[in-house]
Amino acid sequence: MPDPGYDIPARIGDPEAAIATPALILDLDQLEANIDRMRADARRLGVDLRAHAKMHKSADIARLQMTRGGAAGVCCQKLSEAEALIRAGITDILLTNELVGAARFARLVRLAQSARIAACADHPVQVAQASQAVIEARAAGAPDDLELELLVEMDCGGGRCGTPDTAATLALAQTIADSPGLRFGGLHSYYGSAQHVADPAERDRLLALSIARTAEARDAILAAGLPCPRITGAGTGSYETEGASGVYTEIQPGSYAVMDADYNRIRRADGSPPGGFGQALFVLATVISTPVPGRAVCDAGLKALAVDSGPPVAHGVPGVSVRAVSDEHCTLDDPEGRLQLGDMIRLIPGHCDPTCNLHDWYAGLRGGRVEALWPVTARGKVF
Amino acid sequence: MPDPGYDIPARIGDPEAAIATPALILDLDQLEANIDRMRADARRLGVDLRAHAKMHKSADIARLQMTRGGAAGVCCQKLSEAEALIRAGITDILLTNELVGAARFARLVRLAQSARIAACADHPVQVAQASQAVIEARAAGAPDDLELELLVEMDCGGGRCGTPDTAATLALAQTIADSPGLRFGGLHSYYGSAQHVADPAERDRLLALSIARTAEARDAILAAGLPCPRITGAGTGSYETEGASGVYTEIQPGSYAVMDADYNRIRRADGSPPGGFGQALFVLATVISTPVPGRAVCDAGLKALAVDSGPPVAHGVPGVSVRAVSDEHCTLDDPEGRLQLGDMIRLIPGHCDPTCNLHDWYAGLRGGRVEALWPVTARGKVF
Description:
The structure is a homodimer. By secondary structure, the first copy, chain A, is α/β, with parallel strands linked by helices. Chain A is built from 10 helices and 17 strands. In chain A, strands 1, 10, 11, 12, 13, 14, 15, 16 and 17 form a 9-stranded mixed beta sheet that branches. In chain A, α3 (79-87) runs parallel beside α4 (102-112) and α6 (166-178) packs across α7 (200-223). Chain A is globular, with a radius of gyration of 22 Å. At the A-B interface, α3 and β10 of A face α3 and β10 of B.
């Protein structure tokens, strides 16, 4: 946990101007509007919503998504992330990632005794290790009916993890179903990179291929006499397509809750933004140097803002743009001279997930005042 | 502080293979060799060494640099970073950055009562705020002779912060010297971006210009009858040049202690690496998926490795290269099939500073075992 008194950027009730910068801030009205909108969309599409908590890593936001937002649970990417969220009361989790090694499966089995948790596999070695971990836990005193739910992660186009074809997917599903202590939970079929393809026609083409592959794998599993209870995937940039496909039973969007500059650039074929979500997350920064006319330098750099998906975008200050991001600074072009030394500026991060992971706290704002201070529960939980 | 038992990736005495990944690891022999080498270089060049702690953010490494490594103290970039290091016993700090606002100067004045700390200014408003903070602290009971040391940051070529020309530098130095409660400490003249220029001739040209500008400013200050006790700047990619210039009294390298893939690519005009430092920092990762021949996916992504200066480089596995880095994964090309599921791999981060800031712990290795577990003392201290 962060040091109280040193690391907390604000106090409840503070005006925005009193927040120590750089700080991660949330527009609570917009956050709630985004969460409401996704709840309605998932209901309309007839799919379960399992919000991806790797984005915000916050138990408070996860809870909001599961109560107000109608999510059945959350997704995590890392075991330590799931451990942190479970300790904070979030107890329905899908680990959308592979694990390997006895130590990790022992941790997973421990979690399965205090939460509903499932994980993914794409190789028989992982399945054997998972089964062995359950057998050992039972032998060590865990309930005799303790089971682990494993889904097969299939590669539906991304070329990263996942079984490469339907034959491998079916074979692994069968292996899981046949392994003591394991339950086959279905398919994890997620195509992250397709969501960031700028051309809507190309994006739709990739998603159609991905959905066809997923349907083919499902049909092969059902034809083999196995159940396929869950088909899960899709993110903020694609959930409308997978959700409407009739193939997916569950969607996993994360960024929709807060959005970022990269997702804000994505458009549907008709030019409208998918989902219509608004920007709720900003990095609040202070102008610490105005050395020459037209240039302002603020106190948020690479350690406060992830730049893997492009630089941040200056918000609410017409004419101001980000020229460069270095370790501790953003250098801003300000041709009209709008920024003065000491001014505060809101920056929209290029990529929300790794940006949130840099901070210890969210300051939630409503009506210009800090209403909530939420720890980034799983900040830095990478293993 | 991180949660004990959950967030610590290893125990003292563990073999490397027992470390929970992804984890930040240090080759302690190489770290010490780098620190020894820089001590010798600074002595040979006849300049003070003030190692930049923004890179590692570790009180333990700072202490090693100040004792074994001969550093007079360290540099920090952020007030909260300095606060964390001072609380951990590092009490000679130069803040190589501008501050603005009464709240920040009040914090600086508080630190000046328990450490030797100086900061930079590039605008008369900052100087007035600093002076006011000292006056208010004295009125509130601080010693009557309490002073703040301020250096003028001059723009020697980088085009970020800093006074834009010698006239502005001299005027600000005079303003500091004339302000109650302040002491003019000299010039901060740092040209970070020049160090990363690949062409040695162009890099030398930029550094020569920068040194000439710095000398001109110093001469103007001395001619005006002011002392200019310290001229500080230079980093790992340029300290040999500034150190030998006769202009700089102090060098501020940071990356030399551990190095990164970006600095490893820098060459002198004769093709040799500046300083001859070796790679001491790695992100240790585990192969969690080998879905098809020729591809391996490991468990370190954007949240464990900064990619602003390029992707990480796979170390010690011939033929293996990084194809893509996503939030939680590196996808590796492995045409010769050297990596198996569960194998561990060392990755050299593209940029050490923001990579270290992602982690809570360093695991220091010697002879294949964990000898030291050092917290990243100022991890996330951005404000």
